[in-house]
């Protein structure tokens, strides 16, 4: 059973969790909207990637990391900054931590359908997300209104995690070609959903293979706004005037996570030692 929740207050940190560095794109939006909050970011890189695993595996890891963040860091809210973990496990977390404000992610198919003018959109996501019941429900709810091309981007998360710029460039070119034809003519996709938190980190590489007017949809800003709403409703927003802190934790190589934060967040972070890998 999970431990009893501590009693967080406005000074407690917000937990942000992903299988790797992709959730930094969500963390970037959170810190921009709430600069006075403390954040603890956990990258479960020793057990990644989630997108190519089964639901049981993802649920186990999500529960283990959440327990660590609650028990050891006293978080006041948790952002599951991973589409795969959200689809597989957030219902489990809601049942086990009913008092903890929880925010998850899902591919932005609804806003993409609202944005498209050609009636055609493409969804870039992991194979696990595209195979999930959650995505099937989104497709059923919104996909009937437009043409949707779903592109499983095998290997892209691994390439981003490895800072393999050449591999990223090759895979971005491949998957944008599969998402096509792209453009503003009938039958062409004019809107592309970035259905994994890693993908906004390489948006420039994706954009290099797209018309300038192509719309990219990612959910970092809406997730940050929802987190702020939940904290305000619970009277848990920070009242401090000084900038908040950021602590990075990883079940894998902490140096790689810090390198990623410096690259994509330009962040100064707390360099305290990482805990042992959750569930190890």
From TrEMBL:
Positions of substrate binding: 18-19, 50-51, 83-84, 197-198
Gene Ontology molecular functions: glutamate racemase activity
Catalytic activity: L-glutamate = D-glutamate
Enzyme Commission number: 5.1.1.3
Pathway in which the depicted protein is active: Cell wall biogenesis; peptidoglycan biosynthesis
Signal peptide interval: none
Keyword Isomerase: yes
EC class name: isomerase
Positions of the catalytic residues: 82 (proton donor/acceptor), 196 (proton donor/acceptor)
Keyword Protein transport: no
Keywords per UniProt: Cell shape, Cell wall biogenesis/degradation, Isomerase, Peptidoglycan synthesis
A GO biological process held by the record: regulation of cell shape
Database matches in Pfam families: Asp_Glu_race (PF01177)
Family: Belongs to the aspartate/glutamate racemases family.
HAMAP family according to UniProt: Glu_racemase (MF_00258)
Protein function: Provides the (R)-glutamate required for cell wall biosynthesis.
Protein known as: Glutamate racemase
